[in-house]
């Protein structure tokens, strides 16, 4: 797992992908921060939560090549014939993408310090928001990886991931259109944006943590199965 | 070292590999031969654990590839048809990655240095793989297979894309590695297999149609003791003269291959040795015999004959054996002065 993690993480920065994603994060973080700062009630957790929209659009770029490129370049033959478990390979790639995602939030530490220098801040609310965003990110990465494992084309993978990301994040907006009441409730509650909300409001909600963790685990498991299934094709 | 029993692989309704069995001893160098789509790569992919098998059993050094994949894979170095390379990495960086991936125990730097020297890529170790030529990429792929010094090397067309000088280098490397490794290699270049392999397995339509040394195959396939004579003479006269030699079944003229001379293909009756009688008859007629060679088939000819045979049963008839229900695979072995046909069953006893 370590070898795969190291390679994937480095590969993000030997190609422009890592830089582009992080640049997008820094740009929007800066933008949101300056807006909130000028608004007079600086609350970093709001900045962090606002990043979910940026995550939806950048995540496909992070995950599109993770699995599909190996297959296209036939490198999977080296990975799958090495004495390692499929789970190790998948987890290595997953954590590499998550690490890049996490680096994208690094400037928030500076923001927090700036604000803390003249008003008292609630550090826990900052940490909860960051934690919630990482959970949301890992769920999105797991979904993206699974989609990437289904195809050899990184373009198809990116587009499909984008569509699904928008859907899972904002499906609560469509809940009003659904006539069946229980289904509407499910759609509203299951939307990632609703599950992430609590973390932005200084609440550490266990059901939401479990929700994101199980979504991530489920899609990573599917990703392993999809690699394994190819051997049986 | 490698035990394959009753291996089959099905893709949907297509049976790509049918009931293949063979066993390879430690230190053997085996050549896989077969036309495109015969199932060579599929078999290699199954041996290395890249593909699953539909039926049968594969054991590497006693470890079942399905039950103990990690133990089995640790003993194999694999160079697939297309070398598995991350083209955005530098050569050394990539080999370091493979070293970590395979969890190799040897000291890292000296081990990789040695491999770089062995496949002669130490001069490009700091270049990006995407900027390398096909030949270099092939050798990086080779290096990748050698990392961890596995006992078994499985090489799918290792010399594809190399220039003649590199081909010879890689061939020498394979010969050298063959001294302390078990090697399976597939190739379309038959002379290559002839040069490095002691045993050849010919595969067609997913089945083994021959498994023997190149020499034995040649002996088996050629009509015993038929000769080609090159004589300075008139064509018709000599045909008549040779036909009347005792023990000669038929004589065919092969035409003019060299100025003033004719070539004749002479087939004896029942494998009789007619070399003496033929040369005596030519001398008797006062003609000059330029050469007299036995008409042995090259591996190339054997390969074409066997794989062009309408079906595999015909190929087996050519080799002089018929597969029976309980004989999984038949091996022809030359021991002492006789040829014996062995089955897998006897081998195990």
Using the alpha-carbon principal axes, give the shape of chain A.
Answer: globular
**What is the percentage of strand-forming residues of chain A?**
under 5%
Secondary structure class of chain A reads mainly alpha
Number of discrete domains of chain A: 1
Listing every helix as H and every strand as E from the N terminus to the C terminus, the arrangement of chain A reads: HHHHHHHHHHHH
Summarize this entry quickly.
The complex is a heterodimer of chains A (233) and B (349). Chain A has helices spanning 2-14, 16-39, 44-63, 68-72, 76-80, 86-103, 107-116, 123-150, 154-170, 181-190, 192-200, 206-232.
Q: What are the salient characteristics of this protein?
A:
heterodimer; A: 80% helix; B: alpha/beta; 6-stranded mixed sheet; 13 helices; elongated; disordered C terminus
Question: What's the layout of helices and strands?
Answer:
The complex is a heterodimer of chains A (233) and B (349).
Chain A: H1 2-14, H2 16-39, H3 44-63, H4 68-72, H5 76-80, H6 86-103, H7 107-116, H8 123-150, H9 154-170, H10 181-190, H11 192-200, H12 206-232
Chain B: E1 2-11, E2 14-24, E3 29-33, H1 40-47, E4 55-60, E5 63-64, H2 69-74, E6 76-79, H3 91-101, H4 108-118, H5 134-146, E7 152-156, H6 164-177, E8 182-186, H7 190-196, E9 199-204, E10 207-212, H8 214-221, E11 227-232, H9 235-243, E12 248-255, E13 261-268, H10 275-284, E14 288-294, H11 299-308, H12 312-318, E15 330-335, E16 338-343, H13 344-348
């Amino acid at each position: 797992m370590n070898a795969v993690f190291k390679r994937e993480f480095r590969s993000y920065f030997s190609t422009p992908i890592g830089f582009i994603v992080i640049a997008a994060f820094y740009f929007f973080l800066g933008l949101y921060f300056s807006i909130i700062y000028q608004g007079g009630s600086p609350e970093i957790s709001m900045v962090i939560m606002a990043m979910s929209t940026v995550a939806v659009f950048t995540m496909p770029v992070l995950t599109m090549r993770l699995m599909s490129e190996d297959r296209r370049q036939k490198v999977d033959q080296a990975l799958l014939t090495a004495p390692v478990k499929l789970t190790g390979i998948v987890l290595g790639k997953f954590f590499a993408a998550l690490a890049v995602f996490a680096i994208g939030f690094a400037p928030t530490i500076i923001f927090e310090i700036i604000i803390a220098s003249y008003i008292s801040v609630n550090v826990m609310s900052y940490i909860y928001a960051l934690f919630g965003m990482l959970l949301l990110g890992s769920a999105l990465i797991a979904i993206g990886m699974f989609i990437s494992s289904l195809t050899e084309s990184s373009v198809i993978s990116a587009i499909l991931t984008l569509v699904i990301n928008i859907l899972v994040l904002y499906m609560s907006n469509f809940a009003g259109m659904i006539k069946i009441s229980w289904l509407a409730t499910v759609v509203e509650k299951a939307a990632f944006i609703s599950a992430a909300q609590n973390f932005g409001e200084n609440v550490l909600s266990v059901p939401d943590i479990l929700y994101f963790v199980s979504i991530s685990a489920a899609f990573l498991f599917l990703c392993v199965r999809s690699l394994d299934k190819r051997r049986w094709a | 070292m490698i035990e394959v029993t009753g291996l089959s692989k099905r893709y949907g309704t297509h049976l790509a590999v049918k009931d293949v069995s063979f066993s390879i001893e430690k230190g053997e160098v085996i050549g896989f031969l077969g036309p495109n789509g015969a199932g060579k790569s599929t078999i290699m992919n199954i041996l290395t654990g890249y593909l699953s098998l539909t039926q049968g059993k594969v054991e590497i050094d006693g470890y079942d590839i399905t039950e103990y994949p990690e133990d089995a894979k640790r003993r194999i170095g694999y160079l697939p048809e297309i070398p598995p390379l991350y083209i955005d990495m530098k050569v050394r960086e990539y080999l370091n990655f493979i070293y970590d991936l395979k969890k190799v125990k040897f000291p890292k730097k000296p081990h990789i240095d040695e491999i770089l020297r062995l496949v002669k890529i130490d001069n490009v170790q700091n270049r990006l793989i995407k900027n390398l030529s096909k030949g270099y990429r092939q050798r990086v792929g080779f290096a990748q297979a050698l990392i961890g010094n596995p006992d078994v090397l499985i090489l799918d067309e290792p010399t594809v894309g190399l220039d003649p000088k590199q081909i010879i280098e890689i061939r020498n490397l394979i010969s050298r590695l063959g001294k302390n490794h078990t090697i399976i290699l597939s190739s379309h270049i038959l002379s290559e297999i002839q040069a490095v392999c002691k045993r050849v397995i010919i595969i067609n339509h997913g089945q083994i149609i021959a498994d023997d040394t190149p020499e034995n195959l040649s002996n088996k396939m050629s009509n015993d003791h038929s000769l080609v004579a090159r004589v300075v003479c008139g064509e018709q006269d000599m045909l008549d003269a040779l036909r009347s030699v005792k023990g000669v079944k038929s004589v065919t003229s092969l035409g003019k291959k060299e100025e003033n001379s004719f070539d004749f293909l002479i087939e004896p009756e029942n494998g009789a040795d007619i070399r003496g009688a033929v040369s005596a008859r030519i001398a008797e007629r006062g003609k000059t015999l330029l050469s007299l060679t036995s008409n042995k088939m090259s591996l190339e000819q054997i390969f074409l004959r066997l794989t062009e045979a309408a079906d595999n049963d015909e190929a087996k008839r050519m080799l002089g054996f018929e597969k029976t229900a309980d004989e999984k695979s038949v091996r022809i072995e030359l021991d002492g002065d006789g040829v014996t046909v062995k089955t897998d069953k006897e081998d195990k006893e």
